[in-house]
Amino acid sequence: MKTLIFIVFFLFVTPVNLTDALRNQVESNEVIMNFPELAKLQGHPCEEHDVITQDGYVLKLFHIPGKRGLPILLMHGILDSSDTWIIKGKKSLAVALANTGHDIWLGNCRGNHYSRRHVSLNPDLDDIFWDFSFREHGYHDLPALIDTILNNTGATKLNAIGHSQGNSIFYVLGATRPEYNERVNLLIALAPVSFLHHMGHPWGPVVKLIPEMGSYFKSHGIVEILNQRSLFYKLLKFLCHQPIGYAICVQGVIFTFFGKDIEELPPAVWPIIFRHVPDSTSIKNLIHYGQVTRTKRFSHFDYGVKKNLVLYNSSSPPEYDHSRVGMRVVLLAAENDMVCRPNDVAILRRKLPNVVRYAVINRTEYSHLDFVWAENNHIYLFPLVFDMLKNYDL
Length: 394
Fold this sequence. Notes:
The protein is an alpha/beta fold and about 400 residues long. The chain contains 17 helices and ten strands. It has helices at about 1-15, 20-25, 35-40, 95-100, 135-155, 165-175, 205-210, 210-220, 230-240, 245-260, 270-275, 285-295, 305-310, 340-350, 370-375, 375-380, 380-390; strands at about 45-50, 60-65, 70-75, 100-105, 160-165, 185-190, 225, 280, 330-335, 355-360. Helix 6 (about 165-175) links the parallel strand 5 and strand 6 (about 185-190). It comes from Parnassius mnemosyne (clouded apollo). This is Lipase.
């Protein structure tokens, strides 16, 4: 098992050129729409904003204008992008919100294909570009996105909806930059990742190998995962689009690690999803989540005793203080979520001081990825979201 995991991760991150023949096979018939094109397909105009963070990253922020209620910021999960909120068309949350007149903004964290830019660093040449984890997403990316939205709309607050990592970063924001608690009226947290004590069985071997993987990647100068030029990325895209791809990619990997729900995530939807997912992030980001899982502490990045003493004045990294996250939060969990288990959401619920609603989706098979891609979210999820927006909008 250990050898297999190392091989898979090596393929994930190694930039290797495919033969021309295979590249043509992989890319010839694939037409991938970007977010504005997907919005236009659903009958909505879309604005684009380039947002520059305090540390120089250039983030892409999309805006579908509306006049109803406060502006809403949607934040994607790890290895994902803003596309996740719209790729299911009329069955997507972004389209449902836009169709009802809401003013929606869709952010992209540093490192994915929309936000793979910097004012002075080259992501292909400068390893320091990839020296970030979810800490920087929360401390730098979110403030820049929020300020841009408020400055453009004249609003003093916004609502937010996050999926998976898209919630972790709000806890970092509220704990480290508490002034932003006043600028977030309500966070609706879908699969609210923070504590990862009870992750499903398949994650165990991976988590145990995190320290070894970190050392290996560091010694080989590997800083990015899912580089779109990597051998694994191109083969993954090719494989998952083949007839056998559903059995291998979905049933063999995705359902095993994230939760199986064949009815809500049937074979027909995956070719659409695989055009946009997965996306890139830093190795450091994955290692940070691995540390959270292994130590059972939602803490700052662990650099080792020597550097920890310099950065934190402590041999171990301090935990993020959830009691400082003063924004109102709605926590929505799923019984079949193999990543964000209801037991872990219960811990988060006890830690956060301003949880206004907690609910488990009323479907036993509902999983981590159902929150963004389920066929019938108009039944299971959207009523909860719209009810919360109505109850807590200003």
